[in-house]
Amino acid sequence: MAVKRDYYDILGIHKNAEEAEIKKAYRKLVKKYHPDTNAGDAQAEQQFKEVTEAYTILSDPEKRKLYDQFGHAAFDGSGAGAGAGGRTGGAAGTGGTYQEYHFEGGNMDDIFGDIFGDLFRGGKADDAEYQRFGGGFGRSRYRRKGQDVRAEVSVSFDEAVFGCDKIISFQNMERADGSVQSLQVHIPAGIESGKSIRLRGKGMPGVNGGEGGDLLLKVTVGEKYGFERKGQDVYTTASIPFTTAVFGGEVRVRTLYGEVLCKIREGTQSGTKIRLRGKGIVSMKDPDVHGDQYVTVQIEVPKHLTGEAEQKLKEYEEACKSGSRGRKKNSAA
Questions:
Q1: What is the fold of 149-221?
Q2: CA atoms of 305 and 89, how far apart (whole Å)
Q3: Where in the numbering of this chain does the J domain appear (predicted)?
Q4: Is this model's pTM higher than 0.85 or not?
Q5: Rounded-to-integer distance, Cα 284 and Cα 161, Å
Q6: Cα separation of 168 and 219, whole Å?
Q7: Residue 293 CB neighbours (<10 A)
Q8: Do domains 149-221 and 228-299 have the same CATH topology?
Q9: Distance separating alpha carbons of residues 54 and 14, to the nearest angstrom
Q10: What is the pLDDT of residue 127?
């Protein structure tokens, strides 16, 4: 019986290799030995299978932990499962070993799933096909979901506000040449930076007919000049003439949905905030719910005055001073 090679040696990495190193080594070797580029080469096909098997174990933290502790015995039924309520012994007439389990009550599928689910994934098995030999159970083939794949996508401020469809490109790990694949993705209205979109079944392929993993797209939202987002609310500023602040009036304010007229009250101070209800960003949970827009008023100070305007402003200043002195005298009296 051929001795199985060490998974770390197959991938050409050391035992303390990080996840990124494992993935890099796998990508390099899977391209080298893929059957599509080595048609008819039985040795390359075998090496491809070994590389895939090694990556499947070492890329999963739980499986890797078991492998580091028990070696291949953790997965071939030759010893790691003995502590799960069974024993190992020589198979009659073969000179080999077999694994025999004894159960007392309970549903057979549940018990068997618990043992092997805990062994392989740290949880209960989703599905399994069992082959029975003599009085015990032999090797099993498990349908397992493929690994999730993570990627990033950038969208503009407006694309995040209103939603859009984007074409993204990513490296397809299923192809021997690692070629780039394009995929259309819908960006939901109202999404924020840092949120992820889950595309089910677009990750790594499953094992033994299991469903594919998911593609998780982390969204980065760009900025928009003059707008600041905080949750569903947006914040902007509006500059108004000095006279409008004094006498009151109306000013045009830019929103995400076009310009609106805002009423400015007489005597409005710089820094005053105006709330525009429903002019914020739509909720991803409820399309009928929107945030608000908060407009901070900034009063424009004229840089250049005509002689007449300057004279009038000085008269205004004197009038303010006189009024102030008059109020003080009346107060003292």
A1: HSP40/DNAj peptide-binding domain (2.60.260)
A2: 103
A3: 6-71
A4: no
A5: 10
A6: 12
A7: 24
A8: yes
A9: 13
A10: 44
Q: What is the pLDDT of residue 6?
A: 92
Residue 230, Cβ density class (10 Å: 0-12 exposed, 13-18 middle, ≥19 buried): exposed
Q: Express each pLDDT in 180-189 by its tens digit.
A: 778 889 999 9
Burial code (b: 16+ CB inside 10 Å, e: under 16) for 131-144 equals eeeeebbeeeebeb
pLDDT at 80 (0 to 100): 45
Q: Which CATH class is domain 7-142?
A: mainly alpha
| CA–CA distance, 47 with 71 (Å, rounded to integer) | 19
Secondary structure of 48-93 as H, E, C letters: HHHHHHHHHHHCCHHHHHHHHHHCCHHHHCCCHHHHHCEEEEECCC
C-beta of residue 177 within 8 angstroms of C-beta of residue 31: yes
* AA letter at 185: V
Q: With respect to CATH, is domain 228-299 assigned 3.40.50.2300?
A: no
Backbone φ, ψ for residue 141 (5° rounding): -110, 125
What is the Cα–Cα distance from 265 to 100, expressed in whole angstroms? 86
Residue whose pair of structure tokens reads 């008819």 in the numeric block? 40
